[in-house]
Write a structure and sequence with these properties.
By secondary structure, the protein is of the alpha/beta class. It has a domain of 242 residues: P-loop containing nucleotide triphosphate hydrolases (Rossmann fold, 3-Layer(aba) Sandwich), CATH 3.40.50.300. It is built from 13 helices and 14 strands. Strands 9-12-8-13-14 form a 5-stranded parallel sheet, sandwiched between helices. Strands 3-4-5 form a 3-stranded antiparallel sheet, covered by helices on one side.
Length: 393
């Protein structure tokens, strides 16, 4: 039986009301033709096989909201968690607003030596930040602030910390802003500019929305999304970390607004994630844009893979240290490895929800063979013509 209910959700700073038709289903079961569930609770609609083809998207102009809904039962619909807030046409979480972003872009002053940790959401962001910060402070984990995901704390200016500029630096008037990055005190542009070098800056920005660029002269007035983006500002460095798409989609299923807790069937979420109605757009667009920059500009961009950091941390951390011009002794590398392990970070943070699993290959517990085949085909089309870091050798 379907139950119509109003959902009011507050998680990791996301607060919204969503009118949704929700199936109260404890688990899903595939047909008896050889397929079986690998996870006990994926909110699957009874009697339905996992399939991207089951789902379509609708836009409600009155509420400025996108929905994913079943093609076979219009009552089965869910509000896309990031489907009502866009920056330059790309979905964003509610604490990053168009007005503030546009003014920040105009007034942003990049600085030689800035280190930008760039990821698509749920692709090893905190892991990579931890490694970078540890390399910069001699591997001393006691100087970090894990209970706030290593964010810069003005009360302790002597300690290194990252800043998520788009979420935390406030330029627009208060009534035009979003609520700000969860649990972090906003910074003024003056505070941000006064941070000591090197600044460690987190971002999930796709390449075309990256703040630290040099304006083109003359400017491009074509308003063409396919235009080449402005070049990176001189002297800044970008540490890009990617993660396999299916694992990233699974992690996002439990992230922030938590589509899992909202009752999304997992295949509905997979369709939503592929569509770009998730914060910062599509994984494929994000990877494609930054992959092109890395290929053209390896002096300023290093490409890391989450899977490689997990499998061979010593080797990857030494490679990153060389890119950052950090003299990394074997002793320093060992301290960084120990203090950036998933277990160590989870214990330091005291937040078991934020650090869910951190494993490679968890997608196998969520995708049926049929759904995996559909997902892979859709992703391959999105990545057509792109230097895919995960294409078979």
């Amino acid at each position: 039986m379907w139950a119509h209910k109003n959902l009011f959700v507050r998680s990791a700073g996301h607060m919204f009301a969503a009118l949704a038709s929700v199936a109260i289903v404890p688990c899903y079961c595939e047909s008896s033709q050889g397929e079986s569930s690998q996870s006990s609770n994926l909110n699957q609609i009874p009697g339905k096989r996992q399939s991207l083809e089951e789902w379509s998207f609708a836009y409600d102009a009155w509420s400025n909201t996108h929905f994913v809904q079943s093609k076979s039962d219009a009552r089965a619909r869910w509000r896309a968690p990031d489907g009502s807030n866009f920056v330059n046409g790309v979905a964003h979480p509610p604490f990053i607003r168009q007005d503030n972003w546009a003014q920040l872009k105009q007034q942003y002053r990049a600085r030689p030596g800035d280190i930008h940790v760039v990821t698509f959401p749920k692709c090893g962001t905190t892991f990579t930040e931890q490694i970078v910060l540890l390399l910069l402070n001699g591997g001393d984990a006691s100087q970090l602030n894990p209970k706030r995901q290593n964010s810069y704390d003005p009360a302790h200016p002597d300690r290194r910390g990252k800043v998520w500029a788009e979420a935390r630096v406030r330029v627009a008037h208060r009534r035009n802003e979003g609520p700000g990055e969860p649990r972090q005190r906003p910074l003024s542009l003056e505070d941000f500019d006064a941070l000591p070098s090197p600044r460690v800056l987190k971002t999930h920005a796709p390449r075309e929305l990256f703040l630290a660029t040099t304006p083109l002269s003359p400017p491009s007035l074509s308003n063409n999304s396919r235009s080449r983006p402005e070049p990176l500002a001189p002297g800044v460095k970008v540490v890009y970390c990617s993660r396999r798409a299916k694992d990233a989609a699974v992690s996002a299923y439990y992230h922030a607004a938590s589509p899992h807790r909202l009752g999304f069937p997992f295949d509905a979420w997979a369709a939503t994630w592929l569509s770009g109605l998730f914060e910062h757009g599509r994984w494929s667009d994000h990877v494609a844009g930054w992959r092109a920059e890395w290929l053209q500009n390896p002096r300023q961009v290093i490409w890391l893979k989450y899977e490689d950091l997990v499998a061979r941390p010593h080797e990857e951390i030494k490679r990153l240290a060389a890119f950052l011009d950090v003299d990394a002794s074997d002793d320093l590398v060992e301290r960084v490895v120990e203090s950036s392990s998933f277990g160590a970070m989870k214990e330091q943070s005291g937040n078991s929800h934020f650090f869910r699993k951190g494993v490679v290959g968890d997608s196998a517990r969520h995708f049926s063979p049929a759904l995996e085949s559909e997902f892979d085909a859709a992703l391959a089309e999105q990545m057509r013509g792109v230097d895919d870091p995960y294409s078979p050798p």
